[in-house]
Amino acid sequence: MLIKHRNSQRRIYLDNAVYFITFKTYGNFPYFKLPIFCDLFVEELMLCKTIKQFELYAYNVLYDHVHLLLKPRRKYNISKIIKSLKENASRDINYVITGRYNVGDTSTCRLHVRGFINECRKKFVNQYGTNQIHFPPFKWQQSFHDHVIRNEKDFANHYNYVVYNHQKHGLPENWKYTSLKP
């Protein structure tokens, strides 16, 4: 079934489709240079995968953007999945930076991640202190780019692009924040 996204003529939802997805940090700020934020994002990604029940074929977290290769299940489309992932990651990264949740946050820290987030906060404060002038509030650019995978060759091309993309950006071959990690 083909359904167009309400805010875009280009977004389509197809049953059983695999999607290549990219989204970026606001202003291309390199938050993910910090392993603390990468670890937190990957934890949120795995939790979102469990809650939203999608198949995750590949991911790569780079300094200012993220690539995913995934297949939604019927209950949650790609927009709902990415909204949840971005919203929860933003909230929790901002907590690590500031030590508090933003006024008006409608979601709260989820399940077992709370202890993990508190550990991230401690590490962050030990390294950068509590008076944060180095990091603007974490924010994603609006929306995301998606591409529907058309066939096996397209899948293979995008899979390789995702898992090896850190090399294109000059990051180490043994980059920890890819699904290809050792």
Automatic annotation (TrEMBL):
Q: Where is the signal peptide?
A: none
Q: Which residues form the Transposase IS200-like domain?
A: 14-165
Q: Which GO terms describe its molecular function?
A: sequence-specific DNA binding; transposase activity
Q: Which InterPro entries does the protein's record reference?
A: RAYT_transposase (IPR052715), Transposase_17 (IPR002686), Transposase_17_sf (IPR036515)
Protein's GO biological process: DNA transposition
What is the protein's name according to its record?
Answer: Transposase IS200-like domain-containing protein
Q: Which organism is it from?
A: Candidatus Kerfeldbacteria bacterium CG_4_10_14_0_8_um_filter_42_10
